[in-house]
Design a protein that fits this description.
Chain A: It is found in: Cell inner membrane; Cell membrane. Chain A: Its main location: membrane. Chain A: One of its GO terms (cellular component) is plasma membrane. Chain A: It holds the Pfam family BPD_transp_1. The structure holds 3 protein chains of 3 kinds. Chain A has a domain of about 170 residues: MetI-like fold (Orthogonal Bundle), CATH 1.10.3720.10. Chain A contains 12 helices and no strands. In chain A, helix 7 crosses helix 9. The radius of gyration of chain A is 24 Å and the shape is globular. The two termini of chain A are about 15 Å apart. By secondary structure, chain B is of the alpha/beta class. Chain B folds into 2 domains: about 190 residues, Periplasmic binding protein-like II (D-Maltodextrin-Binding Protein, domain 2, 3-Layer(aba) Sandwich); about 150 residues, D-Maltodextrin-Binding Protein, domain 2 (3-Layer(aba) Sandwich), CATH 3.40.190. In chain B, strands 1, 2, 3, 4, 5, 6, 7, 8, 9 and 10 form a 10-stranded mixed beta sheet that branches. In chain B, helix 3 links the parallel strand 1 and strand 2. Chain B is globular, with a radius of gyration of 22 Å. Chain C is flat and about 100 Å long. Classes of the chains: A mainly alpha, B alpha/beta, C mainly alpha.
Chain lengths: ~280, ~375, ~425
């Protein structure tokens, strides 16, 4: 939206102030996330920039909080728990969600809108309600405080993202391609693996990544379902934050930001690849 | 890695079943942290050494009431012995979730032959409850904030002119309403009679109103020492063990105000629906773990007072720092004089109502 | 979905020219059968997830809702009293038959440990009734019939009509009592529904607060999200892709990380206060309290939910051809008129989607208000969580509060579906 040549002074002022406002909003979005990263290298246990840090004095920075994080058995256990839960639940979510998305994308799917609404609902229902309901459900089965119940709960919370993402990547999927493949002699299995899957894969992986990060970040349900053996890092972080924010939490938070950047980059890569493959890239 | 995590998952899914199947093991639920550690050292390890019974621990006491309720509802009770606050034990007992305990039949006598029902400090035994320790919640302050001497009585806490600064109180009605009445001149032993009336409740809330603007609220036991250290608050209510740690291990200039401190009791309960065989094992453990020596031993690791009178003289020094424990015990003569016993029965009756009123008061 | 060709739709045809398949069946029938088969196949793909969700999500929630009205305590644990009291007119202290029934219920209730549950239920509405019932039950073995006199001699509260009326009322297995509490109403002693005294009213206030704070957050999200989405939609793709990262990164970053970031920034010893002190805008003793109150919750949640506003707005704005604005201008409209009369109406679907999504997500928030809300900035979810850990009566109250919240959320979800369609939801 370049400024047209015929713009008047008022318009010019507005144009630049509009850009400034947007810049401020972008800062609002990004600064809080960026600011914790340097603070996690603070040599002293404060949550603000010391004189030394501002002067870029190397001795004002240290890795001590990362060291504290990695040498703590509790933290490492909980990080391991988190990744185990997130990986397992993402795999199951992806399988169930992709199947469902394939069904939903078929033109003959009955009651599509209603069923989609049900499948998406775990994303909409307040987590505290899900947590309350699932806690008494699994406690009755004597399965509270097990990895099983937590993984099942996270599958519930993760599938909506898989369904949404895979369905979106299937929309605009040209059904003619299937008929073309079959008319050229491919059977159903070959069609699926040679035609459908390659086109679908970026969407599936993106959905899986969404389910993974959803589980990795989830706090409320695990707060109720996890026992000491399963404590994931989010629960430890939450109780740490309730008591007193510690620099170790900032170190972990910075690592999580790095993971987000990594996932975001892979998503972006997948999206472009998907667009290229489907020939709808608009450059 | 993958394989290991899978095994880990299988192990985690199965422990409940495994615990039942295995001969001679007990699943004991407690609070975790330093407190569980003190039980591990004073009770569990010596017991396993003596009998070979394996003890599996879970840190689930914070959710004990909800946990026992759902296990009993499902008819599948895997917890054998649970550490609980007396107030929660009262609720669980009322709901028929835990066993009634004949103390004299199940527990050891004092070394001089006093039966348990006389040996445990008065008011600590419950119908379904075996006390272990007494702890106090009391006011503590940072000496540096009051160079001319800190508050000495509960009424001083309300004196914002003589002792200016932020107070930090726990975000629950329990104990705060009692203190408000004490500050308003109600004698300690009449507090609950007054608080049972509408006028008494009005009076307590009106008194709390006086300092409301100078109060920040805490919800986790670790917060008050932290707030005192950061000078975010100059006076805070806290558990005596937490202040002890700050004083002894971190050299913080904190003082405990031993006036109007409220006692609570923590102890063991046994969920219902245990097989006869398992119950024998549980009784054997409880007989051992609640005798005079064991209760005195626990005070080596944590500054909470043993619930048996016969254990009190046997309390010695802190295992880690060598500090003499007696002066830090909430039951020591000097500290005990103006103590108020927290009334669990009262709170079982009025808890729901007063919690709602407290929430409404906070939300104003 | 719109661009998928309507494959397999049966063309209209005239009856008299009915076509048949190779094996002689009418084509219409064969087509309909294959159509049915396709429908079934599509459904089979969805079925595993649907069944999984119904069992591990729908059923537990249905159970929770059932728990909020289930009221077995009086009927099951005071069975004799329940039937004896059914004939009582409620005008005078009940007769010996009711008291004798109560004594027998107490006896069996003591033996099988159920009396406490009945006592707890009554206590929820008459504080102190628990110890009255329990105390009398324990002294029962020393009492002699007639029990009416014996009970009244034990404690005069046994003559309290309110107590007996409550028992008579709560013999029903299904009760709205917890919903009344959840909305700050109660039964008076005559069984009429009245508002609770003001000093106990908290839940309605919390529902309102949750609603208006969520609205404020939603409004702030529109205010901040609209210009940004517009900029992203109108910039050249290369630039907007780079700027989009600034929106997507927060979206992908853990809620806890973002909440802790705001604690670091806003707390009294935090970055912003330090900056203000350093710049001499405030002095060290006058540090501003920006967190542990409503401000803290609103700032942190606006930040957390903003991407949920920007993304749907962006995807709608992206579809508006820039030529529309140029056309309006060339026809003589000012920039302002063109924007408000041409552009903005076209973005309404995006605004609606963003607003509903942000609002739905906001009213259920628990973690952020719990961490940065203090006392004045907590939501209804926080009280639900608090009640979940208490007595069984508090648990049922929590279920009632949760059900009310759920109904609210589902209403807006339904609205979202109706106006926008859930299949239009997209991320990234």
């Amino acid at each position: 939206m370049a400024l047209p040549a015929y713009a008047g002074t008022g318009e010019r002022v507005w144009y630049y102030s509009y850009r400034v406002i947007c810049a401020l909003i972008f800062l609002f979005l990004i600064v809080p996330i960026i600011v914790i990263v340097p603070l996690s290298f603070n040599a002293r246990p404060y949550f603000t920039f010391t004189q030394g840090m501002l002067a870029l004095d190397p001795s004002a920075y240290s890795l001590r909080w990362y060291d504290a994080l990695f040498s703590s058995r509790e933290w490492m256990n909980s990080i391991r728990n988190s990744f185990f839960i997130a990986t397992s639940s993402a795999l199951i979510s992806t399988a169930l969600g992709t199947l469902a998305a394939l069904g939903l994308s078929r033109p003959q799917m009955p009651a599509r809108a209603f069923i989609t609404a049900i499948l998406i609902s775990p994303m909409i229902v307040p987590l505290i309600i899900t947590a309350a309901a699932l806690f008494s459900f699994y406690a009755r089965l004597n399965l509270a405080n097990t990895f099983f119940s937590i993984i099942m709960a996270h599958v519930v919370l993760g599938t909506p993202f898989v369904v949404i993402t895979v369905t979106a990547s299937l929309s605009g999927f040209d059904q003619q391609l299937i008929r073309a493949a079959q008319s050229l002699g491919a059977n159903q299995v070959t069609t699926f693996f040679k035609v459908i899957l390659p086109l679908l894969l970026p969407g599936v992986i993106a959905g899986g990544l969404f389910a993974f990060i959803t589980s990795l970040d989830e706090v409320v349900v695990v707060l109720f379902l996890a026992g000491p053996e399963q404590t994931p890092m989010t629960v430890r972080m939450f109780s740490g934050l309730r008591e007193e924010i510690s620099p170790t939490i900032l170190a972990l938070a910075s690592i999580l930001v790095a993971i987000s950047i990594l996932l975001l980059t892979s998503m972006e890569f997948l999206r472009r690849r998907n667009e290229r493959q489907r020939g709808i890239s608009q450059t | 890695m993958k394989r290991k995590t899978l095994l880990l998952a299988a192990a985690a899914v199965l422990p409940a079943a495994a615990a039942v199947a295995q001969e001679g093991s007990l699943t004991i639920v407690s609070w975790g942290g330093a407190y569980s550690m003190s039980q591990q050292k004073a009770y569990h390890e010596p017991y396993t050494d003596k009998t070979g019974t394996r003890i599996l621990t879970q840190d689930e006491s914070a959710n004990a009431l909800a946990g026992i309720r759902s296990q009993v509802d499902a008819g599948n009770v895997t917890w054998d012995v649970v550490d609980m606050l007396q107030a929660d034990a009262q609720r669980a007992c009322d709901e028929g979730l835990i066993m009634q305990i004949p103390h004299d039949e199940w527990l050891a006598e004092a070394p001089d032959g006093t039966p348990p029902s006389d040996d445990f400090i008065e008011g600590t035994l419950g119908e379904c409850f075996i006390p272990q320790i007494l702890y106090a919640t009391m006011f503590a302050y940072n000496e540096e904030a009051f160079p001319d001497g800190g508050p000495q009585t509960v009424a001083d806490i309300w004196d914002l002119e003589a002792f200016p600064g932020t107070r930090s109180l726990q975000k629950i009605p329990q104990k705060n309403l009692e203190w408000a009445l004490i500050a308003d001149g109600v004698p300690g032993d009449e507090v609950y009679d007054v608080l049972a009336t509408q006028e008494g409740q009005d009076r307590a809330f009106a008194k709390l109103d006086e300092i409301k603007d100078n109060v920040i609220w805490w919800s986790e036991g670790a917060q008050p020492p932290q707030m005192l250290a950061d000078k975010e608050a100059v006076i805070a209510t806290a558990y005596n063990g937490r202040i002890f740690n700050a004083q002894v291990s971190e050299d913080q200039p904190f003082q405990i105000m031993w006036d109007g401190q409220m006692f609570e009791v923590d102890g063991w309960v046994v969920p219902v629906e245990k097989s006869d065989e398992q119950l024998e094992l549980i009784k054997d453990y409880l007989y051992f773990a609640t005798d005079t020596q064991r209760l005195a031993d626990q005070a080596k690791y944590i500054p909470y007072a043993p619930a048996r009178q016969s254990s009190v003289p046997m309390v010695s020094t802190h295992e880690e720092t060598g500090v003499e424990m007696q002066p830090h015990m909430p039951t020591t003569e000097k500290n005990f004089q103006n103590a108020v016993q927290f009334n669990t029965d009262f709170w079982a009756d009025y808890g729901d109502l007063l919690e709602e009123r407290f929430n409404a008061w906070l939300a104003q | 979905m719109a661009d998928i060709p309507a494959a397999g739709t049966v063309p209209e045809m005239r009856r008299d020219e009915e076509l048949t398949t190779a094996d002689g069946r009418p084509l219409r029938v064969a087509l309909r059968r294959s159509q049915r088969q396709l429908r079934r196949r599509a459904f089979y793909l969805v079925a595993p997830l649907l069944v999984f969700l119904l069992v591990t999500f729908g059923w537990p929630i249905a159970n929770m809702i059932a728990g909020s009205v289930y009221n077995p305590e009086v009927a099951h644990f005071l069975p004799l009293t329940s039937s004896a009291i059914s004939d009582w007119d409620g005008e005078d202290v009940p007769g010996e038959d009711v008291f004798a029934a109560m004594a027998m219920d107490m006896e069996s209730g003591l033996a099988n440990r159920t009396i406490g549950r009945a006592a707890g239920r009554i206590n929820r509405e008459i504080p102190g009734a628990r110890s009255l019932v329990m105390g009398t039950a324990r002294d029962l073995e020393d009492m002699q019939p007639p029990y009416r006199e014996a009970f009244l001699a034990e404690d005069e509260r046994w003559g309290d009509l309110e107590f007996w009326r409550l028992i008579k009322r709560e013999t029903r297995i299904v009760t709205p009592a917890y919903y009344l509490l959840a909305l700050d109403f109660e039964y008076n002693s005559r069984g009429e529904i009245v508002e609770r005294p003001e000093i106990y009213q908290v839940y309605r206030q919390l529902f309102w607060r949750t609603a208006w704070m969520s609205l404020t957050i939603t409004a702030l999200c529109v205010l901040l999200g609209y210009p940004v989405a517009h900029l992203l939609a109108t910039l050249p793709l290369k630039t907007s892709n780079v700027l989009m990262i600034l929106v997507l990164l927060p979206f992908w970053t853990s809620l806890l990380v973002r909440t802790s970031a705001w604690i670091v920034l806003l707390q009294q010893q935090g970055v912003i206060n330090d900056l203000l002190v350093w710049a001499n805008i405030i002095d060290a003793s006058g540090r501003i309290r920006m967190i542990y109150n409503q401000t803290g919750t609103i700032i942190a949640m606006t930040h957390i939910l903003l991407p949920f506003m920007i993304l749907p707005l962006y995807s709608v704005m992206k579809t508006i051809p820039p030529s529309y604005m140029r056309a309006a201008r060339s026809l003589g409209a000012t920039q302002f008129t063109a924007f408000t009369k041409v552009y903005m109406p076209l973005t309404i679907p995006g605004v609606a989607a963003g607003v509903l999504l942000v609002f739905i997500l906001a009213i259920g928030y628990y973690i952020t208000p719990a961490l940065v809300g203090g006392e004045s900035g907590i939501f209804i979810s926080n009280l639900i969580a608090q009640n979940m850990q208490g007595t069984s009566a508090q648990l049922k109250l929590a279920s009632a509060l949760a059900t009310i919240l759920l109904v609210g959320v589902l209403f807006f979800y339904w609205l979202f579906n109706k106006l926008i369609g859930v299949d239009r939801l997209k991320f990234g």
